[in-house]
């Protein structure tokens, strides 16, 4: 897809600069007056747009210009307001950008990137703890023990951490074919979709003498499901 207007991906959703949109739409009115008029259509600061300073000079001794980061939702509405061919082209472009951003492959790629960054951060933390507290113990053994103790969570704990209801979270994973219930009703991961998202552990309860297996969610799994769950509910809302 050809880049009609530069899209910024620095936040959790794509944005476009107001001055870039103003230029692409070939607006004759100066930007500041035009943008003020656009905000009269009901757009809210820090929700639909955020003011920023850019390196573009306004001609006054190199003084930076005020610009705005616009959500694609706001940009699309502005394009409709213009009632011009340029507005139509830009709106269709933003729709294509959103479709590409929200396709399953792109969602998974973002989830994996966040998970990898989290794992790298945890690896650094573990390395520091190893040096400080476990100088005489092999680093690999200590890391495995730390993961088993602190990083794996069950479905209830994961739902609580992410702020979701446990039943709806579990049902979501079942519908997306990440887990299933076996003949005993136990939640188990599909092998073809696991890829480091779950770990099945042998568990023993010394008080009740119960032993068996339990499916636990890894940090990578938590970040992956957080993004997938948010994307799914955002799509329903829109």
The average pLDDT value, as a whole number, equals 82
Q: What quaternary form is this?
A: single chain
Rg from alpha-carbon coordinates: 24 Å
Give me the number of helical elements: 10
Name the helix and strand elements from N-terminus to C-terminus, one letter apiece: EHHEEHHHHHHEEHEEH
Sheet-strand content, in percent, reads 15-25%
Label the overall shape.
elongated
**What's the count of strands?**
7
Largest sheet: 3 strands, antiparallel
Observed structural traits:
238 residues, 54% helix, 3-stranded antiparallel β-sheet, elongated, two-stranded antiparallel ribbon, alpha+beta
Q: Would you kindly provide a written description of the structure presented here, covering whatever features stand out?
A:
The chain is α+β, with helices and mostly antiparallel strands and 238 residues long. The chain contains 10 helices and 7 strands. Helix 3 runs antiparallel to helix 4 and helix 5 packs across helix 6.
């Amino acid at each position: 897809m050809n880049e009609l207007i530069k899209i910024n991906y620095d936040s959790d959703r794509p944005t476009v600069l107001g001055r870039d949109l103003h230029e692409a739409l070939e607006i004759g009115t100066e930007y500041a007056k035009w943008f003020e008029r656009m905000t009269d259509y009901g757009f809210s600061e820090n929700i639909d747009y955020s003011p920023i300073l850019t390196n573009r000079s306004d001609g006054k001794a190199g003084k930076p210009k005020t610009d705005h980061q616009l959500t694609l939702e706001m940009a699309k509405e502005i394009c409709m307001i213009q009632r011009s061919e340029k507005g139509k082209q830009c709106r269709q472009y933003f729709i294509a950008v959103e479709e590409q951003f929200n396709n399953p492959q792109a969602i998974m790629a973002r989830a994996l990137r966040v998970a990898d960054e989290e794992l790298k951060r945890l690896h650094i933390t573990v390395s520091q703890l190893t040096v400080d507290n476990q100088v005489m113990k092999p680093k690999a053994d200590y890391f495995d023990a730390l993961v088993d103790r602190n990083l794996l969570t069950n479905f209830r704990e994961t739902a609580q951490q992410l702020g979701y209801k446990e039943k709806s979270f579990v049902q979501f994973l079942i519908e997306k074919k990440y887990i299933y219930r076996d003949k005993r009703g136990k939640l188990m991961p599909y092998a073809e979709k696991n890829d480091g998202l779950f770990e099945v552990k042998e568990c023993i309860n010394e008080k009740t003498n119960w032993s068996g297996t339990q499916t636990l969610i890894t940090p990578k799994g938590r970040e992956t499901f957080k993004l997938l769950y948010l994307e799914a509910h955002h799509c329903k809302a829109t």
